[in-house]
Amino acid sequence: MGRIILLEEDTINKIAAGEVIERPASVVKELVENSIDAEATSVTIDIKDAGKSLISIIDNGTGIMRDDLPHVFERHATSKIKDIDDLMTVRTLGFRGEAMSSIASVANIELESQSEKDILGSRLVIKSGKIIENREISTSIGTSIKVKNLFYNTPARFKFLKSDKTELNYISDTVEKIAFSNTHVAIKYIVNDDIIFHTPGNGDLLSVIQCIFGTKAAKMMLPVSYSNELLSINGYISKPEFSKGNSTYMIFSINKRIIKNNMLKEAVKTAYKSFLMNNRFPVSILNIDIEPDKIDVNVHPAKAEVKFSDDRSIFNLVYYSLNQTLTSNETVYTESFKD
Ligand code: ADP
Ligand code: MG
To answer: Distance, CA 309 to ligand 1 centroid (Å)?
Structure first.
């Protein structure tokens, strides 16, 4: 007899979950992105014990149709793409159909959802990987998901979690960045029963900056706005007199997806070169919109990175638009000094 065996479904799911669901913040990211993909205009995120005991996400999106319910927690089950060609045009944050199955394999879940297409909504409870409740309920249009006892059945993963403070920082960082890149969604963020912030959801990025970084910081920001046939860049960058000791406040989104990208960071740093000392970094929040066929969003397990088909021109345009903002600010600054 040979030594190769086919892994069981449950084992496959747990292994896959390791890629997508690294820590509580990954659960928050995946669930809020699902709410945004479902066109929610309001999302409430409620965290207890740094997400270890509870992550609750409530949205007013399209809801899940009762007919779709059996597939939500299956692997590679998605309503967002049909074939690989769709990746050229996809504008949703999800498309792999992995998050819900991954989360269900490492946590207990209570899901309530109502689609406007159904007369009644659904309530589904998954415990120890099994559906222990599935019934019709009457609720409002949208979806509510409670994730409890995360990593209860993957002790290795649980053991590698950092302190509550650190894990909560990861969550807050994720929620803040999603709020910056989705200004049309009112995001309410609650931690251990305290409301941390509640964005207005009116599309105004400066209000979101004010909600999250405070009024003082918001007053130190300059607007950036640029568009051509390739892309649009919208956001705020800090006045040179307001800088930071590290580069963690350089935040980027591409088509509403929060991403890490060294080339974009370099473009921002280069624009500030003559405005800041070497060891100082700006605060910059830039939302870039680009035709989906100019980027590849399928290059990272958690989709935290994208590849541009033309790095050079993106670099130049970001540099150019920031440089314009900074130079015209300087003109105003020196002129106001004159009189
Ligand atoms: P993906 O987002 O890649 O499609 P997920 O595993 O995250 O995969 O979700 C599976 C499917 O469940 C989604 O395609 C969507 O149809 C449905 N879904 C999940 N969360 C929500 C939600 N908050 N509102 C509406 N539908 C949802
Ligand atoms: Mg998803």
So the answer is: 28
Q: Say if strands 42-48 and 54-59 run parallel, antiparallel, or are unpaired.
A: antiparallel
CATH number of the domain bearing residue 62: 3.30.565.10
Q: To which H or E segment does residue 329 belong?
A: helix 311-338
> Does 254 contact ligand 1 (Cβ within 6 A)?
no
Is 265 near ligand 1, meaning CB less than 6 Å away? no
For 59-110, write each residue's pLDDT tens digit.
999 999 999 988 999 888 899 988 888 888 888 988 888 899 999 999 999 9
Least confident of 85-89, 162-166, 269-273, 320-324: 85-89
* pLDDT over threshold 70, residue 226: yes
292 lines ligand 1 (CB under 6 A): no
Question: What distance in angstroms lies between residue 300's CA and the mean position of ligand 2's atoms?
Answer: 14
CA 260 – CA 250 distance, rounded (Å): 9
Instruction: Say whether both 165 and 32 belong to one domain.
Output: yes
CA distance 187 to 178: 9
**Ligand 1, atom 8: closest residue by C-alpha:** 97
For residues 229 and 192, membership in a common domain is answered with no
Ligand 2 mean position, distance from CA 96 (Å): 7
Complex prediction ipTM = 0.99
Q: Is 190 helix (H, G, I), strand (E, B) or coil?
A: strand
pTM, whole model, 2 decimals? 0.93
